[in-house]
Amino acid sequence: MRIYQLLISLFLLFNLNIAAAGQVLVLVHGYWSEGSGWRTAGIVPHLQQAGWQDQGHLFPNAALPPTGAAYPSDRHLYTITLPSEAPLPIQAQWLDYFLTGIQKAHTDDDMILVGHSLGGVVARLSMVNGQFPVKGLITIASPHLGTDKAEIGKWIADSPLSWVTPLVGLDTINRSRNLYWDVSREYPAMPLFHLNRTPHPKARYISIVRANESNFWTALVPAYSQDMNNVPALHGRAITIPSGGGHYLQPADGVALVNLLATHFPESETSD
To answer: Which of 27, 139, 235, 241 has CA atoms 20 to 30 A from the CA of 259?
Structure first.
């Protein structure tokens, strides 16, 4: 009888541990934005309707998620705010800080990152730094191979026009000078050139590419730069999803994310 009870206890313990494993989704915003953009664009509500529990918003100097807390769902999401005008390494350090806190609060959960625009590059840099395992990365209109718009911004910040930009409400250009260098089109000695040739961790990589470049906003990041298959270290490893619309987040991105998460990150795989 005691052996039978022991086997039952071990069976229940094993299955409870499997059930405790879940997923945690972290939404990383882009340049000239903040984490609330995922909410105002209607993306968080779409995810909530699909069963993702909104665990709140994290920002510098705010409290991190409590460890050991009881969560009502096995799928969680967070939005975060990074210093979006700071150079890539600084933004990645802040992201590492948030992810460390999230991981401590969700020790059994698979982590999935979603980055819009520059946030996709920041998330990828954080993954390459390799401080914690990430199950997958989904990027939306991200400049993985850089953009000439950053070069224009740096040129303005280095020119006499930098004296004018604060007068017309564009002082962000001066503050972002070092960031523009980080995301200029890659060539040897550029930060992106090094990142794109550094071995990337095993994960699922998905690029949502704004294929329509006919308007100014979409042309902020050319389609070829958005596709992670064009990153030398990820060639052939990424899934490319063409998308319409402009550069910025839109409600349709919420629908796309729900479908991609259900297809490529099913809950049944969380205990792998």
So the answer is: 235
Return the closest-CA partner of residue 131 out of 78, 92, 161, 162. 92
Give the closest residue to 53 by CA, choosing from 72, 80, 68, 28. Answer: 72
Residue tagged 């920041």 (tokens): 122
Count of domains observed in the chain: 1
3-state SS class at 162 = helix
> Residue 45 domain-assigned?
yes
| pLDDT tens sequence across 174-227 | 999 999 999 999 999 899 999 999 999 999 999 999 987 556 555 799 999 999
Contacts for 40 with CB less than 8 Å, ≥ 6 apart: none
If we measure between CA atoms, which residue out of 127, 268, 269 comes closest to residue 205? 127
pTM of the model: 0.90
Q: Tens digit of pLDDT for each residue in 124-133?
A: 999 999 878 9
Residues forming beta bridges with residue 209, ordered by sequence position: 242
Arithmetic mean of pLDDT over the chain: 88
Q: Are 238 and 225 in contact (CB under 8 A)?
A: no
**Residue 115 domain boundaries:** 21-145+205-264
Give the chain's largest Cα–Cα span: 86
Query: 132 in a domain, yes or no?
Result: yes
Question: What are the residues facing 271 on neighbouring strands?
Answer: none
DSSP secondary structure code for residue 247 in this structure: S
Query: Residue 53: which CATH number?
Result: 3.40.50.1820
Rounded Cα–Cα distance for residues 145 and 195 (Å): 10
